User: Fold these one by one.
Assistant:
Number 1:
Amino acid sequence: MSKKPAKKETPMMQQYWRYRGEVPEDALLLFRLGDFYEMFHADAEEGARILGITLTQRSGYPMAGIPYHAALSYIPKLLAAGKKVAIVDQVETPQPGKLVKRELTRILTPGTTLEEHQLDANKNHYLLALTSDKKGFHASWLDLSTGDFRIASEENPSALMPLFTSLDPREILLPETVSAGWAHREELRTWHEEFDYFCGTHAVTYQPDYQFEAAAGARSVLDALKVHNLQGFGIEGTHPALASAGAIITYATDTLCSPPQNLRKLSLYRSGESLLLDPATLRNLEVFQSAQHTRQGSLIDAVDATATAAGARLLERWLAAPRLDLEELKRRQQAVQDFLEEPGLSSRVHDSLKTIRDIGRILGRLQNRIRNPRELGGIRDTLDALPGIRETLGEFVGSIAEALRGRVEPFDELRELLDSALNAELPSQISDGGIIKEGYDEERDRLLDLSRNSKQWLADLETRERERTGIEKMKVKYNGAFGYFFEVSKSNLSKVPDDFIRRQTLVNAERFVTEELQNKEREILSADEKSLAREEELFRELVEKILEHADALQDTASALAEIDLFIGWSQIAREWDFCRPELDAESILEIEAGRHPVVEQMMRRDYEGFSGSQSFVPNDTWLSTGEEQIALITGPNMAGKSTYIRQIALIVLLAQVGCWVPAKRARIGLVDRIFSRVGASDELARGNSTFMVEMNETANILNNATERSLIILDEIGRGTSTYDGLSIAWAVIEHLHGETKKGPRTLFATHYHELTQLETSLSRLRNFHVSVKEWNDEIIFVRQVLPGAADRSYGIQVARLAGLPNTVIDRAKTILEELETEGEARPSILEEEAPPKKKAKKAAKVKKEAKQPIAVEQRAAEPAAEIETNREGQLSLF
Ligand SMILES: Nc1ncnc2c1ncn2[C@@H]1O[C@H](COP(=O)(O)OP(=O)(O)OP(=O)(O)O)[C@@H](O)[C@H]1O
């Protein structure tokens, strides 16, 4: 931050320093000076560097400025550079010789911006606060742009991490000393490591601890929501998470420079009501971002066919909190069905939705006094689209579409008002005028006429005076310093009459006024000013009228967002042949011809891809906690093991947000958590080794999975020596299987062929393999998941496909042969580590079979049939 210099400052700079002292140290102060926002001292140096603008000097100190009308395009760059931006505006018209009055009008921070161009239209924009006390950890999050405001408390902060990752907040508020203490608590070590990393990738603002005081927080929340108690929201007034909610309100108030006006509801988030996906699983399944950190290639992108930004944000919120509530999920599924059954009507509604504006966010800005005429135009255009949308929705027969129609209000009166009041084209600033339609307000029309007639009068005067003086090219002109004047070129000066009063001499011309012109000028300027003032008054009245309907408009906006999302899903279901999954509370998972939604879409778009195949090969799945609880999947590299196990997790996730799923048929017993242990590339940046990350994630799964969870494990144990890895994988499977009759539904993909022997000792484990064919020492990927274990890994053939030099491939083959011969002489892991007593007998049998597993023979008859079926377009030949 800039330090105030010791020398005597001008009054303006004294004013500057007063505000500089008021705003947070890490904010850059933009100080309005005429037509510029100026930065001074250290702010100027930093601002000029970030914005790439010229650094100048004023009275010996650094200064850098941006034109005020271009501020909107500069500010996002400062925010993107992680800076906060404080704005001090001029709040009166400058008078010569008088220090202009200024006020701090706004502090823009990553989590509290509201302006359209500073928000990503398709993403929620959360400010998150977290604190802790003896009872546990308390979080609150608010999207100030829409007023979405929630709280959550958990004894164990790890339970909040899935939520934080899904929210992907723009800014995090933490209590300074309380949060510093978390690092020293041994029991929080694992969580803190993860949270610390999370904070490292998000903007964090530390606040004094007292801002997180629970009782004061409860009061701020009541004030902000304008209610006497929180019972209506089902929240106790002593709920500990109100501490963080209070900190959010205080921060929002400080940054908006007045209390937020668009909060009307507080909701309590209970982790037990959602399907939880821990941060690693969200990353591994590429739910919100692909492995390349792009939206393209993620699940959200694959199931997003929304036409509106609000619809896209709703999808993000729903994917962040998949449900366990059958009734709600069935409502969503039915909505998709209603729209799917009426494609013509649905696309008509969707087309109309493309014309509506983001009224949820517009209202947020209007309520928080960020007002511009075009936003009113946005509300008007949206309301204009409503009758058509309602009419089309009325033609649907489905019950849910009908219910949704009921939530879209017509707003006839407000629509008529805005239609009659607002011009078709609107300015971006109130001060530009031209907002109000002629004929809407008598007084404003009168002033407008006066100003217009005066302009005609000026034109007449110009003609009259040209005739009188004989100066043919004399013109009436206007400028801010002198007002209206006659401009006469030097060559015509001799013709100027005596009643012309000289005002200014230019190189080639002179400027004059007359008494008549001066009188008229006063009349015109006052008519213009009065007309503008009247327009501003009418504008404010219109805003108030809109805000009277704010709640109803918000409700309509959320219904429109749902309709948009459902229609989008119905289009995806039709285009990609999704089915409506049966949902129940049984612990089973049955998928017929399931597909990976993202890989399938990418393959269709890019059929020249490495897979070499144009269409995705569907596969079946059957799991149940009591019978076929664990599917152990083996198969060569590149066969499709990872894709298969991920597709199952994605199908379950989609089903639990209410979307239809990429399968021919599916029956899904609701899942409380999805765990995955897949790749680890992201984690290396955290300073953990691949193996450490793998073990951390595995520990998390084993400690937290319940009977209702779904677990996908990919190549567990590969990050260490073969025998260590194999032993760990072996023990993990045994643990998940357990002794009892039930356990989490698990898919385990592995290259450790020894594990396939577990089928004989673990009653609820089944072997599967992803099949391939050999053809002249090359392999053909068939991508079919079939019962039984794979015979070998074909790693060398795959390496050849990847382009390894022939010399290396040949040498590898020789080494492999040697190793295989040696391996036969070496004792197997089963002999090194005896299984538990009661399995000893079975294990002895396995040992016998290990060298020549029965599964291989069982599959001997399968290849011909597979080749036949898959040649029809699905076979991939390299
Ligand atoms: N069912 C399928 N239909 C068509 N192509 C598929 C299918 N499954 C996977 N693929 C293609 O095969 C590629 C490799 O799949 P995947 O990564 O799942 O193999 P893998 O068996 O896990 O390999 P590795 O053991 O080497 O990790 C994928 O990128 C995809 O393009």
Number 2:
Amino acid sequence: MLALLFLTSALLFMGYTCYSLHTLLSKIRPLGIPYFIVPFYPSLLSRVFLLPFVRFLIKAFGLTHHWFFLMTFDWQVRQRYEIYRLIGSDIFFTVTPWKAILHVADPDMAVEVLAGKGKDGELYPKSKIISSIALFGENLVTVEGAVWRGHRKVTGPVIGKSLSVVWEESLAQTEKMIQYYDKSEAINTSYRDFRRATLGVIAHAGFSKVMEWVPLTTAIANEETGERSYQKYLNILFENYKWTLIAPSWLLEMLPFKAAQDAGRAVNHFRSFTNEWFEEKKAKIELDNKTALKPSSREDLMESMVRSSGLDKGSTLETPLLSKSEIIGNSYIFVLAGHESTAHTIAHAIYFLAMYPEYQVKLQNEIDSILGDREHNQTSYDTHYDAFSSGWIAATMLETLRLIPATSVIFREIGPTPRTFPLSGGQRPVTLPPGVEFWVQPIGLARNPKYWTQPGKTEAESAISEFRPERWLPKPGGNTMFKPYNGSYIPFSIGARGCIGKKFAQVEFTAIMVGLFREMSVEFDSCGGRKTFDEARQECLAEMEKFVMKLTLRSSGEMPGIKWVKRKRQVVT
Ligand code: HEM
């Protein structure tokens, strides 16, 4: 009886799947856009349970046909532009029985999808695939329309005003790093080291919390003895992130897997930390309200959010913009987005500079010539940031993010009505049916030879796949950095919904580079003379080929060890 029930359900499911696929294909085929049929949609569950199996099959059987890798979530990382080249189109579909996904490496279409407006005059909505980010409550990333505008109004200005603190705190964090690196031998902890530095920056700039940088070994020792460590639980949360996507924290704590229990506990601790921060700020605002004096300190992100909720006693706010759960949700998103992406971008830039010491020298000369005989802690955002914004440091960040953006896909949906989208190179626009999901691909776009082959050079000479920061530098005599074809470079996305922390990240990157390279140089660890520079560089490049999306793009294995060595400053005459 049970077997019959099972068989009937399976047949019904298969019948429904085939019907659904047939219906979708009847809409996609007439468009004339290349498509591939893929058996499942990379939803949360399939990513957690099916994709590891698909990856295992690909590896075990050495499968090379593109049909196999299109089933993986982050195929763009390894394929880059090659699949578009192979099929001769900068857009193509993967059609699953439930959804048609349009992959986009065409800049004109990318601009329309990310910055254009749908029929109702609103931006194209984010795909539901990112709804998992609402782990602690709805937030800037998950909401749409008027609600999104409200979140952005509360958070945007205050993030914009925090740049001086970002500069100072980045240098303070770097100073601690240098003290440690100066004495240490080789290290292999760059990702975590920079995550701790950038966490300290967003904690200070966004929440007025001080988190001093300590080396990993000290951090681990502190975490073991400290009952409640913010960094410890944040780290556990990120390391076991997948679990938090499939079940609520109370259920995770009951599951018979250590990783699930750890993730559940970390979620609860994170919520309780953020709650404390919220209550502290509320108390401070209530005191300010009572004394009717000007706010007693700089308004940070948390303060702006609490004030906009009207939850503080004495608030005269008539239309609250955020609820308490949205404040917790936004705190999480700002801590997450505000430190991971920048930290990993800095780490990747450091590996590039270790691979290309000639660029390191250029960057150091730039720092020496701009700072003169000033120490880096005698600088400020107001006096020094602009001087670095069109030179080697800026070019290093741009080029690092061109080759390794923090995110490999930016997701959008078309909405309920058909819409027409332009295509680059004078191609005819395409009208797409409702239900289409867009996966706009920063990597494919930033390697598209139609837009990255330099004037007067061949594609090979333009070294599109290689680290060449000079491609961004102003022309001799000018001071404007190279501006690529609109839409062909989108590591921060574009338009009104582009990254709110772009300038924050640029200032942080610049200050950390200034602090580090004013004093130190980076080189590969030779493992006591057993590894040559070329071997280490090859190892580094090979590891970069295998990067995976773990919240942001990063190494899945071990990057080669690096060493920081004290340098002699150039005497500026
Ligand atoms: C190198 C560093 C960074 C990169 C590459 C980066 C990249 C991005 C991208 C591509 C998006 C758009 C995602 C989408 O539309 O689906 C985005 C959005 C966002 N980023 Fe960043 N980001 C960085 C740093 C930061 C920092 C430092 C903060 C906070 C201080 C931040 C906060 C956010 C937030 C809150 C959003 C959502 C904006 C909205 O939907 O209105 N990011 N970021």
Number 3:
Amino acid sequence: MDIKCLLLDIEGTTTSISFVKDELFPYIRRKLESYLESNWDALEVQDDVESLRKQATEDATKMGGVPEIASSLETPTLIQSSVITNVNWNMDQDRKMTALKQLQGHMWREGYSSGEIQGHLYEDVEEALKLWTSSGKKVYIYSSGSVEAQKLLFQHSVAGNLLQYFSGHFDTKIGLKIESASYQEISKSIAVAPDKILFLTDLPAEAIAANEAGVQVKLLVRPGNAPLNEETLQRFGICHNFKEIQLK
Ligand SMILES: CSCCC(=O)C(=O)COP(=O)(O)O
Ligand SMILES: [Mg+2]
């Protein structure tokens, strides 16, 4: 494959889905109440709550059942309780919204630095990052997890701090991963033509969006990933690990 850079998804690609679902997300549910209580006056927390509030108000015009966040004029206890209901509801739907992902990234900071969480990476990831970067390829991350959450995962990973291998990080601030415009924006931002980018992901909807933007794609079949249907298998190449990826 003649490519200049790699664009990597995280969950289901570099990292197991079970790490995200069984460790990262439960951490948020477990700690949210005490995190809000202890950090309530921090500007970062107030910004996160405001972003969630705006998102909830916007969502309420488009769909039913979205738990709204109490007005900033209410008591902290009441607002915090509405934030907990809202965050749990959004996590139940596994929504990839920026406001939720920002808050999660801020909360995981403490979990990673205390050692309570360590970022999972498949065994082949570190070796591939070394090989690709030493042969002149640039490697970028594009994940629905916030840029801060991405950096924490690779900084505190089971293979140590791997941040040095990345030339940049993208999250949903550039657009959703299921929209082809996001890949065009990334291509512009890194000044690499779409057909010289190889995007690795586990999700067909992301593969289709990237492909529509002219980006090359391979789908990862990792343990625990959702099975791929025949149409997807016909359309995209698959690989089981990064060692199978041959680059020129
Ligand atoms: C890297 S942050 C933790 C994972 C996460 O919240 C997420 O949404 C991962 O989505 P991806 O786009 O990497 O599949
Ligand atoms: Mg993924």
